[in-house]
Amino acid sequence: MLNYGQCYLNQQRHLLYIPIHMNMTQSMRSIMTEQQWQLTNFQNDKDGYFETDMHKLTVLCILRDPWERWNSAMCQYWYTRELEDITKEELMKVRLDHHSDRQVDYVTGFDPSESFLRFRMGDPELCKILGIERLPILNQSKYRDKKVHIQKRIDDIVDDELRQAVQDHYQDDYRFITHGTLPKSN
């Protein structure tokens, strides 16, 4: 499981990748491991690197449409727990586990106005930066047949009230994706 602040650092290239659950983390983790990026945590800076050299880094993160990401997270939640069914009341909680955390929570602590590159899933520009031809898709077919059934059931449950609850919960994600702004820290 990812912790907030967990990231991969390539000091030689001055790149930092922040993984966000449900946003190609398995694929990116395989690339980071293969390219020998250092797994670290920018919110628990034991070596003081981020305090002194953060301005040198280009920060990379992959963002996903919050509605699509939430749907995918709900399918995974249902599938991994081998639930018989899921109710609207349960879905109304919106955040059922860490897979449905807000994307902005993973990048809190950064100023996205400088050297912060936000990518959509599959963006070819990210591949250029990483020096690869394309991103591997590692878990696409893991539960495809079951997911079709689960997604149909979720589609049957979704109504305007649930859609609005999801949009309200992820409003900072929508703002970050659209405008590049993060919520103010408390």
Overview of the structural elements:
The protein has one domain. It has 9 helices and 5 strands, in the order E-E-H-E-H-E-H-H-H-E-H-H-H-H. The chain has helices at about 25-35, 50-55, 65-80, 90, 105, 125-130, 145-155, 160-170, 170-180, and strands spanning about 5-10, 15-20, 40, 60-65, 115-120. It has a 5-stranded mixed β-sheet with strand order 3-1-2-4-5, with no helix packed on it. The longest helix is centred in the middle third of the chain and has 15 residues, at about 65-80. The model has no long low-confidence stretch (mean pLDDT about 85).
Describe, in short, the structure shown.
The chain is α/β, with parallel strands linked by helices and 186 residues long. The chain has helices spanning 25-34, 49-53, 66-80, 88-91, 104-107, 124-130, 144-157, 160-169, 171-179, and strands at 6-10, 15-18, 38-41, 58-63, 116-120. It has one domain.
Q: What is the N-to-C succession of helices and strands?
A: EEHEHEHHHEHHHH
Q: Structural class, from helix and strand content? A: alpha/beta
Strand content: 5-15%
What is Rg? 17 Å
Shape: globular
Q: Biggest β-sheet, characterized? A: 5 strands, mixed
* Strand order in the sheet with the most strands: 3-1-2-4-5
Q: How many beta-strand runs?
A: 5
The level of helicity is 40-55%
Could you name the ranges where pLDDT drops below 50 across 5 or more consecutive residues? none
Provide the residue-averaged pLDDT: 85
Instruction: Give me the number of helical elements.
Output: 9
- First-residue to last-residue Cα separation: 25 Å
How many domains?
A: 1
